[in-house]
Design brief:
The complex is a heterodimer of chains A (418) and B (338).
Chain A (H helix, E strand, L loop, with lengths): L8 H5 L8 H9 L7 H17 L4 E2 L12 E2 L2 E2 L12 E5 L6 E3 H14 E7 L6 E6 L1 H13 L15 E2 L13 H10 L2 H5 L9 E4 L8 H4 L2 E7 L4 E2 L1 H19 L9 E3 L5 E3 L9 H5 L4 E2 L4 E7 L13 E8 L3 H21 L6 H8 L1 H8 L21 H19 L1
Parallel strand pairs in A: 8-9, 9-10
Antiparallel strand pairs in A: 1-3, 2-4, 4-7, 6-7, 10-15, 11-14, 12-13, 15-16
Chain B lengths: L2 H5 L4 E8 L2 E6 L4 E8 L3 E3 H14 L3 E4 L4 E6 L5 H10 L31 H16 L9 E4 L11 E7 L4 E2 L1 H7 L2 H7 L5 E6 L2 E6 L17 E2 L6 E7 L14 E8 L6 H17 L6 H8 L1 H8 L27
Parallel strand pairs in B: 7-8
Antiparallel strand pairs in B: 1-2, 2-3, 3-6, 5-6, 8-13, 9-12, 10-11, 13-14
The chains are: A alpha+beta (418), B alpha+beta (338).
The structure holds protoporphyrin IX containing FE and iron/sulfur cluster (SF4) (4 copies).
Chain lengths: 418, 338
């Protein structure tokens, strides 16, 4: 006889309303009689209802991995297995998605077939770190499920103190703002650090994220240890005829209110003939005016990215934003992308050697100072790295040290001018 | 990836938004692509995924893309297919929207369904909130885009948002001393505490830990490495609302979100009290902000006194920053507003 559904009056409430309901989906799985996961999902619903009633969670971790990997499976064992035995093991496989999260339906259907066979039938597209989360697997099915995903060409993402799955914005694939090939950058950086993803041996987690411009659609600055954010180094491209069309459409006041006076560096002014005057030396490539006038303005032609390191969320010293370590890195040919990968590897190496256990890159920088990191990376200082120079007078500058630093600055300027 | 995207990669010229939920991109080659964006429940059963696949096969040449906020995008090259695709998605229960100046899908964590440390649910909170905000998802009527995030513990996997709905523990962890010696690696638990409130101690003749409850900021960081230090509580785990977080460097620099309301009951299955505060903030923002101002930028212009006035939220001593290094959050000027 089929296992009974638990009563779930609170979860039933979540089937009301216009937004698609995950509860309806889970119920559908639970009522797929004859499927291997049906009874498991009945108990999962029972446990979740129990959480809703008691306002507490009942999962605990453990250790599970697949052959040859140290991480990538999130083990979950139930603390209320006596009440809900069939969902007592409900592990997640973190699978790396394709860059930009593009799929064809053949792939998605294959995912479904595999996950019906070995798992719960419940899939999350995607976690905040960009991984596809195949949720709900019994211990003995983890390996065969992974093997089939792997045969399709998909690999496990990271978990624990490791390089993590990465995300990129849609970027060049469908966005005129894109300043480099985000998908290529993601693939190459991740492929070159797979060892660090699969065998957690870093002080703590390390995340790359890739956004094609300052709009930062992949939320890189706050949330990536290394954020690669597209920008350009020459003048933005202006189609003055289209500017005039926008003035016609929005009116002079509209353009002044919505574009000119919202430029953070006062780099714009509207000429008497309704063309746009751009002070490119003051522009910080913030994207605002380009977002408003998508037909009239485009990034410049000399494109690349700014690299920021050390973004993270709360634990343990509070949230941190990334800090600029490379204001501009050209990203056009293969050599440029190799340099990007090398920089990523260098940062991870420095992190592995110098961070304390359980310390993120941002916390390490707060402890040792940006200067020490730059020296480790063999990168010279640049005024684009700061909001303003120091205000605190407690700094020791031995006379000759100052001269030596001035010398470095002059050398770098001379090199850049060549 | 859709073949038109492959062919035109890096060669897009401009885009516009013909209607909410639809993006229209034009390439230098003359190719055009319409993207229809729909909301999903993120945690999807295989039947839902297959249904989305059927829709993609029928209308979008068998290709889809997911966004970082778990919306799904269908790309079509024939404008005539746009409306039938929208109709189909709506008929199947997927809201079409999330583009431009809408309230898009809430960034989502794990919660009771799958994490081992959550103080609340995630999928359920998001489902409840998105039901309430559905109208703002399918329209583009906000001054600028609004990104809402949720987090089910104070680690805050959900991230920074224009509005963030986060769990707030309000009482120090309760320690099950019988289990500590066996389960916890005590030095690393002690090292985790951001305010050095945890000390080794002997309790009932067994090595355990004690917490200086006056120092403890109830962050919950000790729980993951030491589950016998239980911080979650059916009553004392509450919800707090934060505003003004922003990832982009567009106009203003990226910002962190700031606390505006706390001690909101963690009230499943629909979290009505939290939803009320969110809606109150959204209403004030929608009425008062200028075009293109994000929530934080709006507050920068009108000032915090006016924010609390417009939203009717109370201002308390807990809004004052006390964390070390927090003084720059105080007003060091004679600029005041009335
Ligand atoms: C037992 C401990 C933890 C578990 C089980 C856990 C689980 C997760 C999961 C499942 C996600 C993806 C969320 C989703 O999209 O559904 C996530 C993301 C995240 N976690 Fe944790 N987490 C843990 C500890 C931590 C800690 C200690 C931190 C603090 C630094 C942290 C910071 C984050 C951040 C910032 C994200 C978002 C990542 C991004 O934006 O790419 N987590 N975590
Ligand atoms: S970050 Fe910039 S390039 Fe990337 S999708 Fe967003 S707007 Fe486009
Ligand atoms: S991109 Fe930003 S900084 Fe540059 S001109 Fe436009 S609005 Fe100003
Ligand atoms: S916010 Fe906390 S409880 Fe929620 S998924 Fe992240 S770590 Fe787990
Ligand atoms: S809850 Fe946070 S502050 Fe309190 S004892 Fe634990 S780690 Fe320390």
């Amino acid at each position: 006889m089929a296992k009974q559904m638990h009563k779930t009056p609170m979860l039933d409430e979540l089937e009301k309303g216009p937004w698609p309901s995950f509860i309806t989906g889970i119920k559908r799985l639970a009522q797929s009689e004859g499927k291997p996961y049906a009874d498991m999902m009945k108990d999962l619903l029972g446990q979740l209802e129990h959480s809703y009633e008691t306002r507490l969670g009942y999962w605990k971790g453990g250790a599970i991995s697949v052959l040859g990997y140290g991480g990538g499976v999130i083990p979950r064992f139930s603390e209320v297995a006596d009440k809900f035995p069939l969902s007592s093991e409900f592990h997640t496989l973190r699978i790396m998605p394709p860059a930009g999260m593009h799929y064809d339906t053949k792939t998605l259907r294959k995912f479904c077939d595999i996950w019906e066979k070995y798992g719960s039938g419940l899939i999350a597209f995607h976690g905040q770190s960009g991984d596809i989360m195949f949720q709900g697997c019994r211990s003995e099915n983890v390996q065969p499920a992974f093997d089939e995903f792997n045969e399709m060409g998909f690999d496990l993402g990271g978990a624990g103190p490791a390089v993590r799955t990465s995300t990129s914005c849609v970027g060049a694939a469908r966005c005129e703002m894109s300043c480099y090939d985000e998908q290529k950058a993601l693939r190459e950086c991740i492929n070159s650090t797979l060892d660090d993803m699969h065998r957690p041996a870093l002080p703590y987690k390390f995340k790359f994220k890739f956004s094609g411009c300052a709009n930062d659609c992949s939320n890189a600055i706050h949330r990536a240890d290394m954020a690669v954010i597209g920008t350009w180094a020459d003048d933005m491209q202006v189609d003055q005829a289209e500017v005039k069309n926008y003035v016609k459409k929005l009116g002079r006041k509209g353009i002044i209110d919505q574009v000119i006076s919202m430029c953070p560096t006062r780099a714009l002014s509207l000429n008497d003939d309704d063309t746009l005057d751009v002070d490119n030396r003051s522009c910080v490539r913030c994207m605002h005016c380009l977002n408003v006038m998508t037909k009239a303005l485009k990034p410049g032609k000399k494109r690349g990215a700014a690299i920021l390191v050390g973004g993270k969320r709360t634990l343990k010293v509070g949230d941190m934003l990334g800090s600029v370590v490379v204001p501009f890195m050209k990203l056009e040919d293969d050599e440029d992308y190799e340099a990007l990968v090398e920089l990523g590897q260098k940062i991870i190496e420095f992190f592995a050697e110098n961070a304390l256990e359980h310390e993120r890159v941002g916390e390490m920088i707060a402890r040792i100072g940006l200067g020490t990191l730059l020296e480790g990376l063999e990168i010279g200082v640049d005024p684009n790295m700061i909001n303003h120079p120091r205000t605190n007078s407690y700094v020791r500058i031995d006379g000759d040290d100052w001269e030596a630093e001035v010398e470095k600055w002059n050398e770098r300027k001379a090199a850049a001018a060549e | 990836m859709h073949p038109v995207l492959v062919e035109n990669k890096g060669n897009w010229k401009w885009h516009d938004r013909p209607q909410p939920g639809v993006l229209h991109h034009v390439s230098y080659s003359g190719d055009e692509v319409w993207t229809v964006k729909a909301g999903t429940q993120r945690q999807m059963d295989v039947y839902t995924v297959r249904k989305l696949c059927d829709i993609a096969d029928q209308f979008a040449d068998g290709y889809v893309r997911f966004t970082v906020r778990s919306n799904i995008e269908f790309m079509v090259t024939d404008e005539k297919k746009v409306q039938p695709l929208i109709d189909k998605l709506k008929a199947e229960g997927f809201p079409v929207g999330g583009t431009g100046n809408s309230v898009t899908m809430i960034s989502h964590t794990q919660g009771w369904l799958h994490c081992d440390i959550p103080g609340t649910d995630a999928s359920g909170v998001v489902k409840s909130l998105m039901d309430e905000l559905h109208a703002e998802f399918i329209r583009e009527e906000m001054p600028n885009r609004v990104k809402i995030t949720t987090s089910c513990c104070q680690i805050n996997c959900g991230g920074q948002g224009d509005i963030a709905v986060n769990v707030q523990h309000t009482k120090p962890p309760r320690i099950n001393h019988d289990l500590v010696a066996g389960v916890c690696e005590r030095p690393s638990v002690i090292a985790r505490c951001p305010v050095a409130a945890i000390r080794p101690a002997m309790v009932n003749g067994k090595p355990s830990l004690e917490v200086d409850e006056k120092k403890c900021v109830c962050c919950g960081a000790c729980f993951p490495p030491c589950p016998p230090m239980q911080i979650n509580h059916p009553e004392f785990t509450r919800v707090a609302i934060w505003v003004g977080g922003k990832h982009s460097s567009t106009r203003s620099k990226p910002t962190f979100h700031k606390l505006v309301a706390a001690n909101i009951p963690n009230n499943p299955p629909r979290w009505p009290e939290a939803a009320d505060v969110v809606k109150r903030i959204l209403r004030a923002y929608k009425e008062d902000a200028k075009a293109w101002e994000r929530v934080g930028e709006w507050i920068d212009r009108v000032g915090w006194p006016r924010f609390f006035e417009l939203t009717g939220l109370p201002f308390t001593k807990f809004h004052l920053e006390t964390w070390k290094g927090g003084r720059p959050a105080l007003n060091a000027s004679a600029q005041v507003r009335f």
